[in-house]
Design brief:
There is one protein chain. The chain has 373 residues and is mainly beta. The protein has two helices and 28 strands.
Length: 373
């Protein structure tokens, strides 16, 4: 199966994955018109009753600007949210929503990884096949971009080895970068198209393979693949999150399932129903909740049983905003952030023609902040 890169921009046709685009278009068309038109109030807004998870919308920050978006990354200590947006990374204050600055010089921005002990951030630039290194204080690029593989997408930092892993969607491998020296030190062949990755902080890095329906474990020291596990019945996995204490991995899959695996054995612990068009997953160690952000305008909240470890259930599908498919959680405040925009109605296709993609309305980009009561 041909591998397509992660959708950085809904307005950039070369970067779009047709299968994702079709699913997203169908999800939008399937939503009631009232839901598409309403403000993404979410549970608890305007005095309405809170849902089972307690999450509700507390702020909507309109950033506007051109370009789509991809992964979000939270720096809890610095109160910053990093948003990959086509040709730059926007950085906002998580308390006020004010724009703190931008990381320039990207071409097809996808993800950001932070190495705070070195005062550096790393951002993938998909079209140029590079990783931009930048100063966390000034947001200015440091030195020359690091050469990666073809179409670097997601990116993760492993603090135990001080290695950054840039996952290359076009070459089915990961480029490993020494965070202190800002130099590439190796490449790990993955045997499939990588999506999101996470590090457990103990020397293992996990990554979804979207086209294979698999989850891989990489030894961050030896730079070799240790394990390869099936995510069936999940298909086309995208977002990935981890509970490093209990050793749980949460893979959001495009067939509306979130698959939970044991990180030590690869054993399946459950397949939970989620919304359509998932693109990110998150886990909050403080509350023990896992999340799947879905393009159909829902945030699926999942919990593990306190009395029966290994059993999971869906607490709630919080209403967000159509197209809000990526998210990031602040482990300190438990706030979760999503990005979204408004879209023009998709045109009705002529007989025999494919359904057209929804077009993003210029200047409508927003960040949504949900907090737990």
């Amino acid at each position: 199966m041909k591998r397509y890169p992660h959708p950085c921009s809904l307005t950039s046709i070369p970067l779009l994955r047709p299968r994702w685009l079709a699913a997203f278009s169908i999800a939008l068309l399937a939503l009631p018109s009232a839901l598409l038109a309403q403000s993404p109030a979410g549970a608890g807004a305007g005095g309405s009753a809170l849902g089972a998870s307690g999450y509700h919308l507390t702020a909507t920050w309109k950033l506007g600007g051109e370009g789509g978006w991809d992964y979000l990354t939270v720096d809890s200590k610095a109160h910053r949210l990093y948003i990959a947006r086509t040709n730059r990374v926007q950085v906002i204050d998580t308390e006020t929503g004010a724009l703190a600055g931008e990381v320039p010089g990207l071409d097809g921005a996808h993800g950001v990884a932070l190495a705070p002990e070195f005062g550096r951030g790393f951002a993938t630039s998909g079209r140029s096949g590079t990783v931009i290194v930048f100063d966390l204080q000034t947001l200015k690029p440091i030195g020359a971009p690091v050469k990666a593989g073809k179409k670097p997408d997601a990116i993760a930092y492993d603090p135990s080895t001080k290695h950054v892993f840039a996952f290359n969607g076009g070459s089915d491998d990961t480029t490993v970068i020494d965070a202190e020296k800002a130099e590439a030190i190796g490449t790990v062949a993955l045997g499939g198209g990588p999506e999101f990755g996470v590090a457990d902080g103990k020397g293992s890095v996990f990554v979804n393979l979207e086209d294979k329906g698999e989850l891989l474990e990489i030894d961050a020291h030896s730079l070799k693949v240790k394990n390869r596990w099936s995510l069936a019945p999940g298909e086309s996995p995208t977002g990935l999150a981890m509970d490093p204490v209990k050793g749980r991995l949460f893979s959001g899959c495009r067939n509306e399932k979130l698959i939970v695996l044991d990180a030590g054995t690869g054993k399946s612990l459950g397949a939970l129903p989620i919304g359509k068009g998932v693109d990110a997953a998150a886990f909050d160690a403080g509350t023990g909740l896992a999340f799947a952000s879905n393009g159909d305008g829902t945030l699926t909240v999942i919990s593990e049983s306190a009395t029966n470890p290994g059993e999971f259930r869906v607490l709630e599908n919080v209403a967000t905003k159509a197209g809000s498919r990526t998210a990031a959680i602040d482990p300190k405040t438990h706030a979760i952030y999503l990005a979204g925009a408004d879209f023009e109605p998709a045109a009705t296709p002529k007989p025999g023609e494919p359904r057209s993609r929804p077009k993003m309305i210029p200047g409508s980009f927003v960040v949504l902040k949900f907090e737990k009561q």
